[in-house]
Amino acid sequence: MLRTDLPEIITETLPGPKAQAIIDRREAVNPSAIKCIYPVVIEKGEGAMIQDVDGNKFLDWIGGVGVLNIGFSHPEVVEAVKAQAEKYFHGMYNVVTHEGYVALSEKLAQIAPVKGDKKKVFFANSGAEADENAVKIAKAFTKRPNIIVFSGAFHGRTLMTMSMTSKKAYAVGMGPFPDGVYRAQFPYYYRNPAGMPQEAALDYYLDSIKAVFEQCGPADTIAAIVVEPLQGEGGFIPAPIEWIKAVRKICDENGILLVADEVQTGFCRTGRMFATNYWEESGVQPDILATAKSIAAGVPLSAIVAREEIMEASAPGTIGGTFCGNALACAAALKTIEIMERDDIAGRSCEIGEKVSKRFNEWKEKYPVIGDVRGLGGMIGLEFVKDQKTKEPYPEFSAAVIKGCAQKGLMIEGAGTYGNVIRFLAPLVMTDEQLEAGLDIYESVIKELLEK
After folding, report:
1. 276, 331, 345, 416: which could form a disulfide with 268 (CB 3.0–4.6 Å)?
2. What Rg do the C-alpha atoms of the chain give, in angstroms?
3. 257 - beta bridge partners?
4. Residue 305, CB half-sphere, CA atoms under 13 Å: how many?
5. Are 155 and 164 in contact (CB under 8 A)?
6. pTM value?
């Protein structure tokens, strides 16, 4: 029954006694840099629900940070992985061909909104690996050394992707970093420079790209511009369509490849199979798409998709790896995509997003600590401020909301350059009753904090 249950806390305190014992063991043997603020030790998960080792039930609106768009333990994915496991777990793709890798590549080549007629695909294991490989093949194709990334960006924790990631709290003590990673301003319209009229904002953000050409590396040295269609860690900020059209034009005029980092936005999260489907509807396609997270419902896998001429530019041995395109992961991904298409999970994402956005905007009118509501489909950010006019960030309040919700059985997570955004990444298979229960908990915590 866990799949349709509601949050229920049965222990007097959180963590409960069994969970606390395991958390104590964790602290003794795992590095504290792998931070966890939640009082939860999972025993099982189904749909959007977690049951911990003490029997407490939590509604999970984090979903493994966007990994569980079809929820925990989808029975059809479980069966697909079991069936594959009975044949073999692994065969390195450089050594033996397995059909799952081929079939999944064919499927992604069919559905990924990437520029070009004939597309090719290869797999890695994580989002960071996908982004890094996208940069590698962009450099191989263009024969250029540099890339442009953006303020607010998060691309991973490898040495290369740490350098691409904007917030250097994720890279403390890890330098020096690779050269040739240049940063422009992402269009964060809610926080345009003071006094700037909205009609001037587009040119302001485009000028920051042109400033890179002048101050860091000429356009003919830039291999790729790497963009999240909707920034994740940066604060759930969608890339405006008018901006992405202009970026595509800059790329085309200068022989630069446009890379879409769809690690978090892919697989129905934003109301389309990929967030770049929105770009495609406006006549824009990326040259390379990197994606991961919900591709395989929790089994580690990531993918890189590009047209044939880009993919074939890489020298033998420069891409791939031991576990890339693992057989169990490919089986999980094929079944996950089948479920998403059959059950219209993208449509459900839009439906959930409309309900959540409506409620969030009502809160914005009632509670002065809410500054902005934004997102696409079921990927929505709520930005907390000390004052709606000054927009001063209020990270202390958002942290208190996260902690208070966890104590009532709702798990939500923060984001944002200033640590003042709470992201909505709930599994898209949750029930309407669970959605309403979560929103009620969320609002009750905001009200209680304001009344203190």
Report:
1. 345
2. 22
3. 224
4. 30
5. yes
6. 0.97
